[in-house]
Amino acid sequence: MQLETYISDLLYRYECVIVPDFGAFLSERQSATINIENNTFYPPKKIISFNEQIQKNDGLLARYIADVEKLPFEVANKKIKKRVKTLKSYLTQGETITFNNIGEIIFNTEGKIVFEPSYNLNYLTDAFGLSQFESTEVTREVYKEKVEAVEKVVPITFTPEKRKNRGYLKYAAVALIALMLGGVGASKYYVDTIETHNQLAQEQATQQLETRIQEATFSLNPLPAITLNVTKQTGNYHIVAGAFRVEENCDKKVSQLKQDGFSARKIGANKYGLHQVVYASYEGRLDALKALRNIKKTHNKDAWLLVKKLD
Protein backbone atom coordinates (compact mmCIF):
# COMPACT_ATOMS: atom_id res chain seq x y z
CA MET A 1 0.00 0.00 0.00
CA GLN A 2 1.34 3.39 -1.02
CA LEU A 3 0.60 5.12 2.27
CA GLU A 4 2.21 8.41 1.19
CA THR A 5 -0.35 8.83 -1.61
CA TYR A 6 -3.22 8.95 0.87
CA ILE A 7 -1.30 11.21 3.24
CA SER A 8 -0.56 13.58 0.37
CA ASP A 9 -4.24 13.72 -0.63
CA LEU A 10 -5.30 14.59 2.91
CA LEU A 11 -2.65 17.32 3.35
CA TYR A 12 -4.49 19.44 0.77
CA ARG A 13 -7.55 19.53 3.05
CA TYR A 14 -6.29 19.05 6.60
CA GLU A 15 -3.57 20.59 8.75
CA CYS A 16 -2.81 17.35 10.61
CA VAL A 17 -2.69 13.81 9.21
CA ILE A 18 -1.88 11.19 11.86
CA VAL A 19 -0.28 7.85 11.03
CA PRO A 20 -1.22 5.73 14.08
CA ASP A 21 1.78 4.49 16.17
CA PHE A 22 4.16 6.38 13.87
CA GLY A 23 3.63 10.15 13.98
CA ALA A 24 1.75 13.07 12.44
CA PHE A 25 2.38 15.15 9.35
CA LEU A 26 1.53 18.79 10.02
CA SER A 27 0.99 21.64 7.59
CA GLU A 28 1.38 25.34 8.36
CA ARG A 29 0.47 28.21 6.04
CA GLN A 30 3.33 30.50 5.03
CA SER A 31 2.88 33.88 3.33
CA ALA A 32 4.52 34.79 0.03
CA THR A 33 8.25 35.46 0.38
CA ILE A 34 11.02 37.22 -1.54
CA ASN A 35 14.64 36.12 -1.78
CA ILE A 36 16.49 39.43 -2.09
CA GLU A 37 19.75 37.72 -3.04
CA ASN A 38 18.47 36.37 -6.35
CA ASN A 39 15.29 38.49 -6.73
CA THR A 40 13.05 35.42 -6.59
CA PHE A 41 9.38 35.68 -5.56
CA TYR A 42 7.72 32.64 -3.92
CA PRO A 43 3.91 32.27 -3.67
CA PRO A 44 2.17 31.45 -0.35
CA LYS A 45 2.35 27.78 0.54
CA LYS A 46 1.99 25.14 3.23
CA ILE A 47 5.13 24.06 5.10
CA ILE A 48 5.12 20.36 6.00
CA SER A 49 6.61 19.11 9.28
CA PHE A 50 6.56 15.83 11.24
CA ASN A 51 5.85 15.23 14.93
CA GLU A 52 6.53 11.72 16.23
CA GLN A 53 4.84 12.54 19.57
CA ILE A 54 1.39 12.63 17.96
CA GLN A 55 0.51 8.97 17.35
CA LYS A 56 -3.03 8.51 18.66
CA ASN A 57 -5.36 7.24 15.97
CA ASP A 58 -8.04 9.82 15.07
CA GLY A 59 -9.50 7.64 12.31
CA LEU A 60 -8.98 10.22 9.53
CA LEU A 61 -6.42 8.28 7.51
CA ALA A 62 -8.18 4.92 7.97
CA ARG A 63 -11.58 6.31 6.92
CA TYR A 64 -10.07 7.86 3.79
CA ILE A 65 -8.32 4.61 2.80
CA ALA A 66 -11.51 2.66 3.46
CA ASP A 67 -13.51 4.99 1.20
CA VAL A 68 -10.96 4.92 -1.63
CA GLU A 69 -10.28 1.18 -1.59
CA LYS A 70 -13.86 0.19 -0.65
CA LEU A 71 -12.70 -1.58 2.49
CA PRO A 72 -14.15 -1.93 5.99
CA PHE A 73 -12.74 0.55 8.48
CA GLU A 74 -11.12 -2.21 10.55
CA VAL A 75 -9.36 -3.67 7.52
CA ALA A 76 -7.97 -0.22 6.62
CA ASN A 77 -6.58 0.11 10.16
CA LYS A 78 -4.88 -3.25 9.88
CA LYS A 79 -3.25 -2.29 6.58
CA ILE A 80 -1.94 0.93 8.14
CA LYS A 81 -0.57 -0.98 11.13
CA LYS A 82 1.20 -3.44 8.86
CA ARG A 83 2.74 -0.66 6.79
CA VAL A 84 3.92 1.21 9.90
CA LYS A 85 5.64 -1.94 11.17
CA THR A 86 7.54 -2.20 7.88
CA LEU A 87 8.53 1.48 7.99
CA LYS A 88 9.89 1.19 11.50
CA SER A 89 11.97 -1.84 10.54
CA TYR A 90 13.53 0.16 7.68
CA LEU A 91 14.37 3.00 10.05
CA THR A 92 16.03 0.75 12.61
CA GLN A 93 18.20 -0.65 9.83
CA GLY A 94 19.44 2.88 9.06
CA GLU A 95 17.51 3.28 5.82
CA THR A 96 15.89 6.50 4.65
CA ILE A 97 12.13 6.41 4.13
CA THR A 98 10.95 8.58 1.28
CA PHE A 99 7.37 9.81 1.16
CA ASN A 100 6.88 11.11 -2.37
CA ASN A 101 6.05 14.86 -2.49
CA ILE A 102 6.08 14.97 1.34
CA GLY A 103 9.63 14.42 2.56
CA GLU A 104 12.22 11.98 3.90
CA ILE A 105 12.52 10.40 7.36
CA ILE A 106 15.62 8.89 8.97
CA PHE A 107 16.87 7.99 12.44
CA ASN A 108 19.67 10.21 13.75
CA THR A 109 22.52 9.01 15.94
CA GLU A 110 20.36 9.49 19.04
CA GLY A 111 17.59 7.28 17.67
CA LYS A 112 15.25 10.20 17.03
CA ILE A 113 13.29 10.69 13.85
CA VAL A 114 14.55 13.48 11.60
CA PHE A 115 12.22 14.77 8.89
CA GLU A 116 13.36 16.66 5.78
CA PRO A 117 10.36 18.14 3.91
CA SER A 118 9.97 18.09 0.14
CA TYR A 119 8.97 21.22 -1.76
CA ASN A 120 7.81 19.57 -4.97
CA LEU A 121 4.13 20.25 -4.25
CA ASN A 122 2.34 23.25 -2.81
CA TYR A 123 -0.48 21.93 -0.64
CA LEU A 124 -2.09 25.36 -0.29
CA THR A 125 -5.13 25.24 -2.58
CA ASP A 126 -5.52 29.03 -2.45
CA ALA A 127 -2.21 29.32 -4.32
CA PHE A 128 -3.17 26.88 -7.08
CA GLY A 129 -1.61 27.91 -10.39
CA LEU A 130 0.94 30.23 -8.81
CA SER A 131 4.64 29.54 -9.24
CA GLN A 132 7.88 31.16 -8.25
CA PHE A 133 9.50 33.62 -10.63
CA GLU A 134 12.62 35.75 -10.83
CA SER A 135 12.54 39.47 -11.47
CA THR A 136 15.31 41.45 -13.08
CA GLU A 137 17.13 43.71 -10.70
CA VAL A 138 15.92 47.30 -10.65
CA THR A 139 18.88 49.56 -11.31
CA ARG A 140 18.80 52.92 -9.64
CA GLU A 141 20.32 56.12 -10.95
CA VAL A 142 23.16 56.89 -8.58
CA TYR A 143 24.90 59.90 -10.00
CA LYS A 144 24.84 62.33 -7.12
CA GLU A 145 28.20 61.44 -5.58
CA LYS A 146 29.94 61.41 -8.98
CA VAL A 147 28.43 64.76 -9.95
CA GLU A 148 29.38 66.34 -6.65
CA ALA A 149 32.96 65.16 -7.11
CA VAL A 150 33.12 66.59 -10.62
CA GLU A 151 31.42 69.81 -9.60
CA LYS A 152 34.21 70.57 -7.17
CA VAL A 153 36.57 70.74 -10.12
CA VAL A 154 34.35 72.15 -12.88
CA PRO A 155 31.11 74.08 -12.21
CA ILE A 156 28.16 72.36 -13.82
CA THR A 157 24.86 73.85 -14.92
CA PHE A 158 22.03 71.36 -14.60
CA THR A 159 19.08 71.18 -16.95
CA PRO A 160 15.90 69.21 -16.31
CA GLU A 161 16.32 65.60 -17.34
CA LYS A 162 14.03 64.48 -20.14
CA ARG A 163 12.07 61.42 -19.26
CA LYS A 164 10.04 59.14 -21.44
CA ASN A 165 6.42 60.07 -21.48
CA ARG A 166 4.50 57.93 -19.04
CA GLY A 167 0.95 58.58 -20.08
CA TYR A 168 -0.50 56.03 -17.69
CA LEU A 169 0.69 58.09 -14.68
CA LYS A 170 -1.32 61.03 -15.96
CA TYR A 171 -4.42 58.90 -16.31
CA ALA A 172 -3.87 57.46 -12.83
CA ALA A 173 -3.68 60.98 -11.42
CA VAL A 174 -6.93 61.92 -13.20
CA ALA A 175 -8.67 58.87 -11.71
CA LEU A 176 -7.42 59.65 -8.18
CA ILE A 177 -8.54 63.28 -8.36
CA ALA A 178 -11.97 62.22 -9.66
CA LEU A 179 -12.44 59.84 -6.71
CA MET A 180 -11.40 62.44 -4.12
CA LEU A 181 -13.62 65.19 -5.52
CA GLY A 182 -16.57 63.01 -6.55
CA GLY A 183 -18.82 64.50 -3.90
CA VAL A 184 -18.25 68.12 -4.93
CA GLY A 185 -20.70 68.04 -7.82
CA ALA A 186 -21.42 66.07 -10.97
CA SER A 187 -21.15 69.10 -13.23
CA LYS A 188 -17.69 70.16 -11.99
CA TYR A 189 -16.47 66.57 -12.29
CA TYR A 190 -17.72 66.39 -15.88
CA VAL A 191 -16.05 69.66 -16.91
CA ASP A 192 -12.74 68.78 -15.24
CA THR A 193 -12.73 65.33 -16.83
CA ILE A 194 -13.39 66.77 -20.28
CA GLU A 195 -10.58 69.31 -19.95
CA THR A 196 -8.14 66.67 -18.73
CA HIS A 197 -9.18 64.27 -21.50
CA ASN A 198 -8.58 66.94 -24.14
CA GLN A 199 -5.22 67.97 -22.73
CA LEU A 200 -3.87 64.41 -22.45
CA ALA A 201 -5.17 63.32 -25.83
CA GLN A 202 -3.94 66.49 -27.51
CA GLU A 203 -0.44 66.23 -26.05
CA GLN A 204 -0.17 62.62 -27.16
CA ALA A 205 -1.52 63.38 -30.61
CA THR A 206 0.76 66.39 -30.98
CA GLN A 207 3.83 64.31 -30.26
CA GLN A 208 2.80 61.57 -32.71
CA LEU A 209 1.78 63.97 -35.46
CA GLU A 210 4.85 66.16 -35.24
CA THR A 211 6.96 63.02 -35.59
CA ARG A 212 5.02 61.41 -38.43
CA ILE A 213 3.51 64.32 -40.35
CA GLN A 214 5.53 67.48 -39.79
CA GLU A 215 8.78 65.72 -40.70
CA ALA A 216 7.34 64.91 -44.11
CA THR A 217 8.08 67.25 -47.00
CA PHE A 218 5.01 68.56 -48.74
CA SER A 219 5.33 69.87 -52.28
CA LEU A 220 2.31 72.09 -52.60
CA ASN A 221 0.97 73.85 -55.64
CA PRO A 222 -1.61 76.61 -55.31
CA LEU A 223 -5.06 75.09 -55.35
CA PRO A 224 -7.66 76.55 -57.75
CA ALA A 225 -10.43 78.50 -56.10
CA ILE A 226 -13.72 76.60 -55.93
CA THR A 227 -17.13 77.36 -54.54
CA LEU A 228 -18.82 74.72 -52.37
CA ASN A 229 -22.20 74.62 -50.75
CA VAL A 230 -21.36 73.15 -47.35
CA THR A 231 -23.78 72.41 -44.58
CA LYS A 232 -22.35 73.75 -41.31
CA GLN A 233 -21.41 70.98 -38.91
CA THR A 234 -22.43 71.23 -35.28
CA GLY A 235 -21.65 69.29 -32.12
CA ASN A 236 -19.05 69.26 -29.38
CA TYR A 237 -17.48 65.88 -30.25
CA HIS A 238 -14.79 66.08 -32.94
CA ILE A 239 -12.66 63.25 -34.39
CA VAL A 240 -9.21 64.78 -34.93
CA ALA A 241 -7.28 63.65 -38.02
CA GLY A 242 -4.16 65.74 -37.50
CA ALA A 243 -2.58 69.02 -36.47
CA PHE A 244 -0.19 71.02 -38.65
CA ARG A 245 2.14 73.87 -37.99
CA VAL A 246 1.87 75.03 -41.64
CA GLU A 247 -1.71 75.95 -42.50
CA GLU A 248 -1.22 75.03 -46.20
CA ASN A 249 -0.58 71.47 -45.10
CA CYS A 250 -3.76 71.66 -43.07
CA ASP A 251 -5.73 72.65 -46.18
CA LYS A 252 -4.22 69.80 -48.15
CA LYS A 253 -5.22 67.31 -45.45
CA VAL A 254 -8.83 68.56 -45.52
CA SER A 255 -8.90 68.13 -49.30
CA GLN A 256 -7.54 64.61 -49.09
CA LEU A 257 -10.09 63.57 -46.46
CA LYS A 258 -12.96 65.01 -48.44
CA GLN A 259 -11.84 63.00 -51.46
CA ASP A 260 -12.00 59.94 -49.19
CA GLY A 261 -15.61 60.74 -48.36
CA PHE A 262 -15.26 62.41 -44.95
CA SER A 263 -16.88 65.69 -43.88
CA ALA A 264 -13.48 67.07 -42.99
CA ARG A 265 -12.87 70.66 -41.91
CA LYS A 266 -10.51 72.91 -39.98
CA ILE A 267 -11.45 73.87 -36.41
CA GLY A 268 -8.69 76.39 -35.71
CA ALA A 269 -5.36 76.26 -33.93
CA ASN A 270 -4.80 74.60 -30.57
CA LYS A 271 -2.79 76.04 -27.70
CA TYR A 272 0.40 74.73 -29.30
CA GLY A 273 -0.22 76.79 -32.43
CA LEU A 274 -1.02 73.73 -34.57
CA HIS A 275 -3.90 73.93 -37.06
CA GLN A 276 -6.32 71.08 -36.37
CA VAL A 277 -8.22 69.03 -38.96
CA VAL A 278 -11.20 66.86 -38.01
CA TYR A 279 -12.90 64.05 -39.88
CA ALA A 280 -16.30 65.24 -38.68
CA SER A 281 -18.16 66.66 -35.68
CA TYR A 282 -21.02 64.98 -33.81
CA GLU A 283 -23.82 66.02 -31.49
CA GLY A 284 -23.83 62.76 -29.51
CA ARG A 285 -20.91 61.13 -27.76
CA LEU A 286 -21.99 57.59 -28.67
CA ASP A 287 -22.19 58.47 -32.36
CA ALA A 288 -18.73 60.05 -32.17
CA LEU A 289 -17.22 57.02 -30.43
CA LYS A 290 -18.75 54.66 -33.00
CA ALA A 291 -17.32 56.72 -35.85
CA LEU A 292 -13.93 56.95 -34.10
CA ARG A 293 -13.69 53.17 -33.78
CA ASN A 294 -14.44 52.74 -37.47
CA ILE A 295 -11.88 55.39 -38.49
CA LYS A 296 -9.18 53.85 -36.29
CA LYS A 297 -9.88 50.47 -37.83
CA THR A 298 -10.06 51.47 -41.48
CA HIS A 299 -8.28 54.78 -41.96
CA ASN A 300 -6.10 56.18 -39.18
CA LYS A 301 -5.23 54.40 -35.94
CA ASP A 302 -3.89 57.66 -34.48
CA ALA A 303 -7.22 59.52 -34.73
CA TRP A 304 -8.57 60.72 -31.38
CA LEU A 305 -11.67 62.33 -29.89
CA LEU A 306 -11.69 66.01 -28.92
CA VAL A 307 -14.52 67.23 -26.70
CA LYS A 308 -14.83 70.99 -27.19
CA LYS A 309 -17.48 73.59 -27.76
CA LEU A 310 -16.46 75.60 -30.78
CA ASP A 311 -17.22 79.30 -31.07
Describe this structure in words.
There is one protein chain. This protein is α+β, with helices and mostly antiparallel strands and 311 residues long. Helices cover 37% and strands 21% of the residues. It has three domains: 3-134, no CATH class; 167-212; 237-307, Alpha-Beta Plaits. It is built from eight helices and 13 strands. The strands form four sheets. It has a four-stranded antiparallel β-sheet, sandwiched between helices. Strands 1-2-5 form a three-stranded antiparallel β-sheet, with helices on one face. A three-stranded antiparallel β-sheet has the order 3-4-9, with no helix packed on it. A hairpin with a 5-residue loop joins β11 (265-269) and β12. α2 crosses α3 and α5 packs antiparallel against α6. The protein is elongated.
How many β-strands, per DSSP? 13
Mean pLDDT: 78
Write out the strand line-up for the largest beta sheet, numbering strands in chain order: 11-12-10-13
Overall tally of domains? 3
- Helical amount: 25-40%
Give the count of helical stretches.
8
